[in-house]
TrEMBL record:
It comes from the Bacteria. Residues 97-106 have a biased composition (Polar residues). It holds the Pfam family HTH_Tnp_2. Residues 85-106 are annotated as: Disordered. This is Uncharacterized protein.
Length: 142
């Protein structure tokens, strides 16, 4: 995310660009078509800054580094997924979630459960002692 914070005038200016999907105070979301076009133009030899200027972006508003950063990220996506990488939502698709532990034998499960019970019992005893100490302190204050 950029360190640049856009004001209302800049947001309206950016949103008026047909290559922009939407704008917040801190980020610009570009249309998939623009991303694909920009990557293809970049592969054909155009520089990132030139591409952004030709498509109506003011570098004083978005920052001079933004074109390079965007094209670097978009080229990676394009090389990995092709045009579909910009047209489909990929967030969360590759995530396998929390790693599951291997299948435990009955004995291992029992041992694990017993260890957990022992831990919880010790925690309960500690909390009981703490509660008693807090009661004693509050009685002494009265």
């Amino acid at each position: 995310m950029s360190k640049i914070i856009f004001n209302e005038i800049q947001i309206k200016l950016l949103e008026s660009n047909p290559n922009v999907d939407h704008v917040s105070e801190r980020s610009i979301s570009y249309t998939p078509d623009f991303k694909i076009r920009a990557v293809k133009e970049n592969f054909n030899g155009k520089g990132p800054v030139q591409i952004f200027i030709e498509h109506g972006f003011d570098l004083q508003v978005i920052g001079s580094e933004k074109p390079k950063q965007c094209l670097k990220r978009w080229r990676k996506t394009f090389n990995q997924f092709g045009e579909d990488g910009f047209l489909t939502e990929r967030r969360g698709k590759g995530s396998t979630g929390r790693p599951s532990s291997k299948q435990l034998t009955v004995e291992e499960s029992l041992r694990k459960a017993e260890a957990r019970i022992k831990y919880l019992e010790a925690e309960l005893e500690f909390l009981k002692k703490l509660d008693e100490l807090e009661r004693q302190v509050s009685k002494e204050k009265k």
